[in-house]
Amino acid sequence: MTVRSTLSSSLISTPLQRINLIYAGYRIALSFFLIALFLLTAKNPIVGINDPSLYLQTISTYSLGAIFAYLLLRFWPLYQDVQIFAMLALDVVAMTLLLYANGGPSLQLSMLYLVMVMAASVLLPQGRAMLIALLAAIAVIYQQFYFSLIRDNDLRMVSSVSLLAVSFITISILGQLVTRRLRVVEQEAFSQTKQAQQLQVINQHIVERMHTGVVVFDQEQRLMVINEAARQWLHQPNAVQGWTLTQLSLPLKRQINEAISNHHLTPFVLDANESNLALSVQLIPLDDARVPHVNERQMNSAPTIVILENLSRVNQKAQQMKLASLGRLTASIAHEIRNPLAAISQAGELLAEMVTHPDERPLLNMIQKQSNRMNRMIEDILQLSRRSTSRPQSIAIVEWLQEFIRNFVPNSTEAIQSQSYSSDQLLLETHGTKADTEIIVFDPLQLEQVMTNLVNNGLHHGSKLHAKPRIYFRVKTLDSGLVMLDVMDQGAGIPSTVMTSLFEPFFTTESGGTGLGLYLSRAFCEANGASLWCIPQANGACFRISFGV
Predict the structure, then answer these.
(1) Which of 79, 169, 283, 348 has its CA 20 to 30 A from that of 478?
(2) How far apart are CA 295 and CA 260, in angstroms?
(3) pLDDT digits (tens, 9 = 90+) for 147-174
(4) pTM of this prediction?
């Protein structure tokens, strides 16, 4: 688009400016009509009776001038007041010549002056509009007076024409009053429109910068509004107005449709996966957001707001408080538990030296085994007091994993400790061109504890099926920039019956386990704004960490 066309489109945007073009088009239509009227009645003329040649020359020149004026106003709309004044002045001159060629004022042609006077009062400032009205009145009175003298007509006709001239002035004054009011209304409307546009821009900036995701879709489930938080949490950085819910997130669409079909508007949870973070979702129909229950017809016929809350951030704050509280609690009771535990363990060792009967050995072994288990449980919980709050740092995840693999020493169970360990049991894969440079934000010590727990569990369960079990790390970077880390083992997998209880505290399927490893791992992840969940698969277990935004 050129500068001139841009200027033209911007200058004809107001109603008053569009009226300028309408009047310019009216002048072209009027000139063509008067030419056609002259040509069609050439044998029995209706117009141009006194001087047909002057009439034809005047109306031809006027039509060309009208076309030129329209093009000038349309494509070079600068100094519009000057252009409109020149057009109206030309109209008065042309109409005066046409009246002369017609043999003097006639009621039909004189009425055309009324259009000019009204147009002047609408399109021009007060002074120029009154000047056009005076010129029209003078032209009509002068011609009537002139033809009355040269043809010895009754001068009383001048009085009737004078009345017409007075009506020109009256119409001009009334038109200016109406136009003045319209201009005030237009200015007020323009001001309100500008304020509304400014408010819309402000609201858009607010919505874009909210920490709450906002999505609005219509009855066809096409996006009307989506902010940056929703794009990030749904891993769709390029989502724009016009996308369908299917394009945005298929799991979200399914749960929204299920909520609508069940007439259920209470918030629901969208579980974390590769398509999104863990989100709390609330639907609000726009037709009446205050009504807690609406029927399916209302929800399908009106736009709907979808409010998304990042549960990882909510859980992060909750976990920070939980870890801090639990840390203070464990620090206060650690000595109370460990002192009698140490006495029990020491007493068991002394008894083992004194016992000679073989049947008593299993009882002593049971005391030692359960004491060791209790001690490990206290060690796991005391980690919360030693590191009760997260101190996230920027970490190059692949480099960190390579260092972790080199320095890792299994320490979870006696079965793993007794095996010969080598670093080739931990294998690292990367997917995505940026995986080797991708940065995550996490507390390094807590990330090490999470990875240690996951790897120890994987080695423990893999050792049941393989002499030399392996752990696979897979780093994957999505198109949205989200980094995911999978930790996969070669064990028997996790039964679906225990999947829902996997991350509950003190839940374990092993007789010697504490049931705190996965619970603490998820707590550490949530405290750092990440998500940890188990991915069902046919062979082995896969635990995925999604490093949140």
Answers:
(1) 283
(2) 8
(3) 666 665 555 555 666 777 777 788 778 8
(4) 0.47
